[in-house]
Amino acid sequence: MRRPEADNPAAPPAGTRLCAVSELRDPGARGFRFRAGEALFAAFLVREGAEVRGWIDSCPHNGWPLAVMDDLYLTRTGDRILCAAHGAVFRLGDGVCTAGPCAGESLTPWPVAVRNGWVETA
């Protein structure tokens, strides 16, 4: 399967250390932006217990970033990802939209791995 970030020159290469797991709230999220010339790559991490997942920061409804403020990707209860533009909500575990204008569509995964307490690109 083709990785969605493969065509983006700003996407960090596999093995790039992003942050320590301990820097992520539980549940919590943190956004990342990388630049290479004019290219921009935006993604975010979501932690839920021992699980850390990565998602490309783009709503399937309109392609806009999900958060209007840095790191505010989750609902107030922390149990869903929220698109601030139109109120779409996504499950933490699989990124599927459960309500809003893109119901049934999914966020695009960003492959990450936890190694020795650090989150890295995979």
From TrEMBL:
GO function terms (MF aspect): 2 iron, 2 sulfur cluster binding; metal ion binding
Matches recorded under CDD domains: Rieske
Keyword line: 2Fe-2S, Iron, Iron-sulfur, Metal-binding
Residue span(s) of domain Rieske: 16-121
UniProt protein name: 2Fe-2S ferredoxin
Organism: Phenylobacterium parvum
